[in-house]
Amino acid sequence: MKKQVTRSMRIVMSGALVAALAAGSLGMQAGAEEEVTLTWLSHYQEEGKLAWVENCVALFEEAYPNVTVNVEVVDADSYDTILQTKLASDDAPSIFDLSSNYDVGVYQEAGHLADLSDLECLDNVDPDLLLEGQIDGVQYGVPIEMSGYGVFYNEEVFEEYGLSVPTTVSELTEICEVLMENGVQPFAAPFAEQWAFAYYLRCIVDITCVKEDNDWFADKMSLESSFSDDEVFKESVETFFSFHEYWGDDPFGTSWDDAQQMVANGEAAMCVHGSWAVDGFLSYNADCQIGVFAMPVSEDSSDCAMIKEPGQQLVLYNNSDEAEMEAAYNFYNMIYSEEFMTEYAEGAHQMPSVTGEYDMLEALQTIVDYPEDQSFVESGLTTFTSEYEDAYYELLTNYSMGDTFDVDGFCEDLDAAFAAIG
User: Fold this and answer.
1) pTM for the whole thing?
2) DSSP string, 118-168
3) Most buried among 268, 314, 335, 401, using CB within 10 Å?
């Protein structure tokens, strides 16, 4: 059973970090004496990340006794709805997470986001990642990490059966066959949760379609191009579904927690997901060895590329309360210091947005080290809004539940759904 994160499970901060905090060298300014409460709304689920958040809050409150930081964690599938409800009911969180440049634009246009351009900590962040949080050159969001998307696998299972990292679809299929013959489920497929299901197609489509056309998402939403006429997309969907027999007996009854446990314990060999999954696997089996490779998308190995993008970014609610804004600025400057990001990399097992030398897990270092010509860095792209994304994945789910997949029917239904939204 997955452990619950409590304050007793906090990562132990390094002596250098504590000393830096005490010396006031993390870019924080002396706060007012007025009592202030900040609320941080997120959908973090991984144990290490949640423990890191608890540490950030505890140390910040120690440095600023007049400030209380309340952390609210909700599940990913309901996050957007809860956030929008809070904003509409005058219960806006001080700090919340957004995942794309498009989302930043939507919330900024609605007047919800504060300008973060003058934060001292921005000098610490990789400038390529900062693009994700910029609208017309103004910084409204600050990525907290870089994320990588690919196939995460149990290295011990691969070693036991003499399997090598594949770079083509046929090589990956051969691996799945070997695993099936030996009673190991090839993929832990957590399709009970839409957000987790999404990566199984996304890791193919983002390379085959979006890498070659950065306006792919926008053109589909504006009806400038259709799914029915997109032969590359159709081929990508067929590649996605070609692995359905390797998803297990009940993929749509398998949760993300189930999938993490299956890979960590060697019951399943692989899972298509994001880099935060590494910490999730370790929460079930601290001794498991996790590797990662780019999802093969064709029979040409040169098409195989690791997807990288700015991860979750923190935005600040545009509040008229000066004391609250000052406290939030100080909180940002602490979080985005190299000292705190070192703990994020080494304790929470993430890839920080702040540039620095970190002792990361091998799988994460593998993602970072993928060469430029074998990587697709998605930064500042317009992606599907939640309304279009929900329609997209609802139809994908319905069509994926059978033993066959009607690609033409799927594309026709997508075109109709997108036209109805538009």
Assistant:
1) 0.78
2) T-GGGGGB-HHHHGGGEETTEE-EEE-EEEEEEEEEEHHHHHHTT-----S
3) 268
